[in-house]
Write a structure and sequence with these properties.
By secondary structure, this protein is mainly alpha-helical. 47% of the residues lie in helices and 4% in strands. A two-stranded antiparallel ribbon has the order 1-5. The chain is globular.
């Protein structure tokens, strides 16, 4: 994973120069106490982008049923049939914690120097990466993680991590950026180039997401109170993407999902159009289908043993220059729409929902005005009907690199709904999730990842193995 992270760091020389970051050596060899913050920050950013945007994106897209394993290859069968285990995709976990080491060191030094700009950036990145990890795995090391004096960090429960993330965001947001000391983030900030207004909005939106994810849990009252407080206070949320868009169509400089699937595996046809999303596009005549997939037929989820000619099954479109996003503009708008329904009597929710849907069509060079007034018109009905509309469109808009967020939201809300029959059956309803045809979990969809063998071998505090069909605490 470190080699992948170092490869993606090639991009950073365009923005910060070789004097700040030597891309030809492992970022972990930098002196954590002497290297400038501007050298360590891009290492942390690209580490998170590389981890989330590659292997986690593959898993998320498969379990969100954007794509299914090709019937002419076998690279991702273990994901598609839910047999992924402790020895698989260890680099997802390792890469994230490697990146968090850089991020938490920036945070530690920024706190000591009272550099509140870097402190807010590092805290936001720490929380964003930790949210993905805890939503994937449940209990994770948080309070003791990346502390070089603690070789076997304690695992905090998911509930504890959620509490700590809110506390950490509140702490960083409480600092006066106007009184920040030391250097200012600039081109070393590969996401916003030092625009602290956007970082503040990103932190606020993450906080909203963390509250929102708890709305169906035992802590729903806490979540709803937190959402209401933010809405009442007029909190400013993201209206732009949070991610990297500096990719080019060259080896080691492309979007991590494209780099991982199309270049490093050298099998660009591995991911094929799933019947789940394709059928939903078809019944709604959604023009985004041609933006997501090449021409061809859909393959039922997990039907990779189907002898039909692979050349007739549509390939997923991936681009070397697609931005890799920690949070999209659309995700933020959908979060805000749901917040308005839950805490503001629905006032403003429709406008935010419409803006999110339209933004996703625009992202793909398409016009969506007929859809927000037609097939995807915001419903007049119950809260759950509105939540279903919001989450369904968020599912579509998270393609291709943020399918893990759609997977989390499916687990939180149960939307899109799960089919009671196989996709090959006559009663299958277009757009509903389907159990993989080759599934190995007795009809149960996956709800989490299992702890990697690399961590189990290194840390005696790793919790007992939990089946991937067991929900995390908020699910």
């Amino acid at each position: 994973m470190k080699k992948f992270i170092i490869s993606i760091l090639v991009l950073s020389t365009t923005f910060i120069g070789c004097s700040d970051l030597d891309i030809n050596r492992d970022p972990d060899t930098l002196d954590s106490n002497a290297a400038p913050l501007s050298a360590q920050l891009p290492a942390g950013i690209t580490g998170v982008i590389g981890s989330e945007g590659a292997s986690i994106a593959i898993i998320g897209g498969m379990w969100s049923q954007y794509w299914t394993q090709s019937n002419a290859a076998n690279q991702y069968k273990d994901i598609d049939n839910y047999s992924i285990g402790t020895s698989d995709y260890n680099f997802a976990w390792n890469g994230m914690y490697d990146a968090l080491g850089d991020i938490r060191n920036v945070k530690r030094r920024a706190l000591a120097d009272e550099n509140w700009n870097y402190y807010l950036i590092a805290t936001t990145l720490e929380v964003q990466a930790s949210q993905v990890l805890t939503d994937l795995y449940g209990s994770i090391p948080y309070k003791e993680a990346n502390n070089i004096s603690i070789l076997e960090p304690k695992f905090n429960t998911g509930e504890e991590v959620y509490t700590y993330m809110i506390e950490d965001l509140n702490d960083a947001l409480s600092k006066s950026l106007a009184s920040s000391k030391g250097q200012l983030p600039a081109n070393d900030d590969l996401i916003y180039q030092g625009n602290m207004t956007n970082w503040t909005k990103f932190a606020n939106t993450l906080k909203l997401k963390i509250f929102m994810r708890q709305t169906y849990s035992s802590r729903a009252a806490i979540a709803n109170a937190g959402i209401a407080q933010m809405v009442t206070a007029g909190t400013q949320f993201l209206t732009v993407d949070a991610g990297m868009n500096q990719f080019t169509d060259a080896i080691n400089q492309s979007n991590p999902l494209f780099e991982y699937n199309n270049r490093r595996l050298n099998v660009a046809t591995n991911l094929r159009m799933s019947t789940t999303l394709a059928s939903y596009f078809d019944i709604n005549s959604d023009t985004r289908k041609a933006a997501y997939y090449l021409a061809g037929n859909a393959l039922n989820q997990g039907d990779y043993n189907n002898p039909v000619g692979a050349g007739t099954i549509a390939i997923v479109k991936l681009s070397a220059t697609t931005p890799a996003l920690l949070m999209s503009k659309e995700e933020s708008l959908f979060l805000q729409a749901e917040a308005m329904e839950r805490a503001n009597g629905g006032t403003g929710a429709k406008a935010l929902y419409d803006a999110a849907v339209l933004a996703n069509f625009t992202r793909h060079g398409l016009v969506g005005t007929t859809f927000v007034s037609g097939a995807y018109a915001y419903p007049v009905g119950t809260l759950e009907q509105k939540v279903e509309a919001i989450i369904t469109q968020k599912w579509i808009a998270s393609f291709p690199g943020n399918g893990f967020e759609a997977f989390f939201e499916k687990n939180r809300t149960n939307y899109p709904k799960t089919s009671a029959v196989a996709q090959s059956a006559g009663g299958y309803i277009a757009g509903q999730f389907a159990y993989s045809k080759t599934g190995t979990t007795a009809g149960l969809l996956p709800r989490r990842m299992t702890y990697p063998l690399s961590e189990r071998n290194a840390n005696t505090n790793v919790p007992a193995l939990i089946p991937i069909t067991t929900p995390v605490w908020w699910d």
